[in-house]
Amino acid sequence: MGQRSPLVTLAATAVGLVGFMVVNSTQTGNPTPAGSPAATATAQDSATPSATPTAPGTVTPTATETTMPAPSKPPAQVTAVYAGRTGDRVASLAIATKGDRAAAYVCDGRSLEAWLTGTFRAGRLDLRSKTGERLAATITSSTATGTFTLSGRTLRFAIAKAGPPAGLYRARNTTSTIGWIVLPDGKQVGVDNDGTPAPAPPLDTTTRAATVNGVAVTAQAVIGDETF
Questions:
Q1: pLDDT of residue 41
Q2: CB of 168 within 8 A of CB of 105?
Q3: CB–CB of 99/77 below 8 Å?
Q4: How remote is the C-alpha of 197 from its chain's centroid?
């Protein structure tokens, strides 16, 4: 066999080197096998649906539960009745209070009498009659203390809180207005005024009935918010 020339030998060597490099490059660039963890993660990511995008500026409405406040109850109006005699025992009186209002009756059981109404605020009474008499008093939980002007004379009093049947009662018919003060000891003092004042007839405190000039009348308890 003849000898190869140096050029032929060099060319053959170059071809072999290129073939080796191509094979090595192909093995290095192979993708990850399907069973590998990376391939599994990629497959799962591709299978997961993406969330529906929300348009910018869009607010999703939410249900709002509205609770209506309970209606408030008006404050209770406290009522009380005080009854007794003036300091010099010239007259008897009864005072009824309800909330910020008050009413009173003063009489001597014969001919002098006065019906008064007015305000009751911060423990103070300020009452007046249509004929100008005035009653001013300080009220506590158990007593009423003050002054009353009757026929130009100032009478002082300190009377106690009274429970039924003690209290103040009033009745009217076509001719008369009758007032009764029932004292804590059960005694009654009142005036029947038909234009000429006179002692009031007895009042049945159970039925609140009385007979005036032969006519039956029914009395009402005065509670303090009346307007005489």
A1: 42
A2: yes
A3: yes
A4: 47
